[in-house]
Amino acid sequence: MSSFGNSPTLSKEIGPVTVGQILMMATAMVLGLVIVSAAGFTGVLVWVVIAIILYMLPHLAGAKPATKAVFGVLFVVIGLVLGAFVIGPAFAKDNSSTHLTGNGIDANITYTDTEISFSATYSGTDTHDMVICYSEVDYISFKNAYLKNNINSIPTAAMTHAGSTYTGSAAIDSSKLYYVFLAFLNDDGKVNTSTMSHVTLTDFDYHGNINDYTVKGAIWAIGMIALFFFIVLGVTTFMRMRLAATRKKMEAQGRLYPQGYGRCNFCGAIVLPGQVNCPKCGAYIDRPESMKPHKKDYFVCSVCGCEVSPDMKECPKCGAQFDGEENVVTHKDGTSDVSDETKTCPN
Question: Which end of the chain is more exposed for a tag (fewer CB within 10 A), N or C?
Fold first, then answer.
């Protein structure tokens, strides 16, 4: 089990995870929900940022892929519940009003089952026609309402005025949720956004279940975050599995030491099978015999048993000196050996 930091408390295991991993996953959960609540549905960049936060914080704490996957599912469940049944409905309620102000407009709103009516006074100088702008809401994603119409195609209803007093109404379906405001038109008949009043959602005492909108919004936002999270998790897990398989193959071929034996015990430099001395600090690389590659041209130091390459003049472990002089000795049976000893043949 990977540990988080050097603290024994954070490294303490609770089932398959450590305390440190739980703390990092809780932090990632809170950050992700705070960002999505503030930003709502704002595009791919926000989704990717949240997905990376959800992946990286548990990863830095040493969480395994299966733990990250369970955490991702937990985030989805909690996010959906909060977005659909807590944050979204609270946003709708807080932004439903019967009074509008802004840009010199002060208006009261009344609702019936079939229409929304405005009675407004205007203290500004715009002489164009004031209109009621209203669009059905598509969904509510946490703290944002998204419309079925953009500002250039939003439906409008004309208002009449006497002096600075404006009145008008627009037909609505009381079972639906609308986004409404007042504004003046430009010369081309389009809404002048610089003259808009503040906006409001229709008072939800007059429409159907608010959860119809908040559930859809929560699914959309949390679903896209989950998609990117599991893409990151899947790609990184696949890459780690491929790397592990490659390493296992190289270990079997004697090209790498098993994990835990691939670095110098003194300086931490990477060492490879076949290296007798550390390439960085020169220390002798002492490894179990079973891990050493079989090398026919190497010999063993007669003093300490260290593996020695043919070109060495002294033992890398004990310092014993080798004279380097070799003699071929032919036996009577025809076999031959290499010896570093020289004896004078008696007459």
Answer: C
